[in-house]
């Protein structure tokens, strides 16, 4: 393995700071710095960028981001046991790293960006990953405070994010992501790349904002996707009954006998506007 910095190998970092992985915090660590560099490179050129990383853990991805030239890196970690290892990294790259100890779900990311778009990069904890993504997809102001999202998910979640209509994976996440972003799976990462290995394959997803997504209220789009996919095997006239059923579908010009997974993102937007 080639060196990317003069800091100790990650296995030694885990041993020194007694960082045994905690399942409740979704801790599956990446210890191969070549792999973490590959993930960081997926975010594009980092030279001079402000990057925000959620869940740095012992800092494998953190070190990759810094080695690739990020000018500023804000890291948000919930597990206080990781802070000494992260402080060592911050000391190695003086003036470039800001450490926030706490729950990323409570962080105001727009305020962190402070008017200059950030690149968000993370090997996300599985238990809060989807909620964080939804929060990043639904800010009131668009284009958003981030310029790219480069995120590791369980492969099954990644497939839902990039899913097209007609696919078994297509649902609420695919509509929200497809509405506001161009999303693609960059590459898969096998379980054995992690310590400890999870049960399933993971995938790195890259999302960039669409500059002019269809104008529709995010809350209305959430409502129709939740109702439609909540009963995905039923015809829309049945699954959307609580939102107006046939009359809503008529206003939107959509056949009431269709099922949720056949509707394009544009048709979901039309439905959401008709809800208004
Ligand atoms: N980035 C490291 C890596 O790739 O080796 C660790 C990834 S591990 C999958 C997820 C990390 O997120 C853990 O370090 C965990 O403590 C942290 N974490 C879990 N829940 C969090 C939350 N709500 N806010 C911030 N960090 C969290």
Number of discrete domains: 2
Largest sheet properties: 7 strands, mixed
The computed structural class is alpha/beta
Q: Give the CATH level 1 class of the largest domain.
A: Alpha Beta
Main-sheet strand order equals: 4-3-2-5-6-9-7
What is the CATH superfamily of the largest domain? Vaccinia Virus protein VP39
SS strand fraction: 15-25%
CATH fold-level label of the largest domain: Rossmann fold
The succession of helices and strands, N to C, reads HEHEHEHEHEHEHHEEEHHHH
The helix tally amounts to 12
Hetero groups bound?
Answer: S-adenosylmethionine
CATH architect. name of the largest domain: 3-Layer(aba) Sandwich
Shape estimate: elongated
Number of strands: 9
Query: Could you report the average pLDDT, rounded to the nearest whole number?
Result: 96
Q: Report helical residue fraction.
A: 25-40%
Report the oligomer.
single chain
Rg from alpha-carbon coordinates = 20 Å
Span of the ends, CA to CA: 57 Å
Point out poorly predicted stretches. none
Walk me through this protein's architecture:
The chain has 12 helices and 9 strands. With 276 residues, the protein is α/β, with parallel strands linked by helices. The longest helix has 13 residues, at 218-230. It is elongated and about 65 Å long. The relative contact order is 0.11. It binds S-adenosylmethionine (SAM). S-adenosylmethionine binds next to strand 1, helix 3 and strand 3.
Question: What is the topological layout?
Answer:
Blueprint: H1 10-16, E1 29-30, H2 33-42, E2 50-54, H3 60-67, E3 72-77, H4 83-92, E4 97-101, H5 109-113, E5 118-123, H6 129-137, E6 146-154, H7 155-162, H8 172-180, E7 181-189, E8 194-195, E9 202-209, H9 218-230, H10 236-239, H11 245-252, H12 265-275
Parallel strand pairs: 2-3, 2-5, 3-4, 5-6
Antiparallel strand pairs: 1-8, 6-9, 7-9
This protein binds S-adenosylmethionine (SAM).
S-adenosylmethionine (SAM) binds near residues 30, 77, 79, 103 and 125.
């Amino acid at each position: 393995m080639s060196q990317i910095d003069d800091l100790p190998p990650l296995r030694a970092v885990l041993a020194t700071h007694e960082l045994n992985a905690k399942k409740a915090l979704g801790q599956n660590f990446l210890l191969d710095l070549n792999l973490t560099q590959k993930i960081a490179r997926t975010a594009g050129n980092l030279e001079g960028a402000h990057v925000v990383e959620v869940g740095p853990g012992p800092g494998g991805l953190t070190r990759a981001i810094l080695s690739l030239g990020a000018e500023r890196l804000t890291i948000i970690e919930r597990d206080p046991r990781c802070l000494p290892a992260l402080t060592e990294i911050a000391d190695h790259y003086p003036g470039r790293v800001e450490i926030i100890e706490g729950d990323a779900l409570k962080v105001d990311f727009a305020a962190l960006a402070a008017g200059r778009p950030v690149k968000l990069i993370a090997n996300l904890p599985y238990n809060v990953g989807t909620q964080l993504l939804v929060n990043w997809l639904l800010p009131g102001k668009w284009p958003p405070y981030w310029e790219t999202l480069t995120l590791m998910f369980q492969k099954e979640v990644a497939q839902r994010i990039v899913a097209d209509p007609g696919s078994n994976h297509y649902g609420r996440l695919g509509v929200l992501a497809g509405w506001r972003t161009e999303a693609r799976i960059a590459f898969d990462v096998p379980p054995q790349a992690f310590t400890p290995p999870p049960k399933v394959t993971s995938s790195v997803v890259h999302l960039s904002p669409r500059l002019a997504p269809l104008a529709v209220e995010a809350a209305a789009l959430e409502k129709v996707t939740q109702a439609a996919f909540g009963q995905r095997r039923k015809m829309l006239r049945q699954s959307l009954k609580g939102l107006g059923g046939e009359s809503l579908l008529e206003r939107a010009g959509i056949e009431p006998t269709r099922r949720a997974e056949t509707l394009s993102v544009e048709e979901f937007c039309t439905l959401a506007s008709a809800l208004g």
